[in-house]
Amino acid sequence: MSGILIATLLATASAKIPAGLSGGEVLYSDCHGSRQFVVGYVAGWLDKWNSDEYLARRIFTEAAPRPSRMVNSAHFAIAVGVNVCIPEGTTAQAVGNTLCTFLEENPGIREATGDELMTTMAQYKYHCPIP
Predict the structure, then answer these.
(1) Residue 28: which of 117, 90, 93, 126 has the closest Cα?
(2) Spacing of C-alpha 1 from chain mean position
(3) Host H or E run for residue 46
(4) CA dist., res. 99 & res. 78, Å (int)
């Protein structure tokens, strides 16, 4: 497993999974079944990520630059994963399949939260090209 991948995972929030929320083991267990839970989780994560990205862009385009706003925006951008470019038209099912493959190839990180895994996987598999 790549050192960058490990560093990315470790750099994400390290909170434990609250009761009722999914982690890597729960997601991985559904990968060998219907994958309905995985696809639903991925769809929700993508909706939230798209909303967060939209709000982050608005902060920079509609607000007068202030140091405190810039610091908050930088923390926010890091939290939602700046370097993620999921191609237009990619379905939640396709991303779910990618997540299942990612979990299969990286068993040592399944104890992470679903959000940590999705962020790490998205940055690793769907990183934006460098201009």
Answers:
(1) 117
(2) 18
(3) helix 36-62
(4) 21
pLDDT, tens only, 69-83: 555 545 555 555 457
Residue 24: how many other CB atoms lie within 10 Å: 23
What type of residue is 2? Answer: S
Distance of alpha carbon 26 from alpha carbon 5, whole angstroms: 21
pLDDT in tens, 94-123: 999 999 999 999 999 999 999 899 989 988
The partner residues of 113 in beta bridges, in order of sequence, read: 23
The radius of gyration of the chain's CA atoms, rounded to the nearest angstrom, is 15
**pTM value?**
0.67
**Residue found by looking up tokens 């902060």 in the block:** 59
Tokens describing residue 70: 């810039």
End-to-end CA distance of the chain: 26
Among 116, 112, 122, CA closest to 90: 122
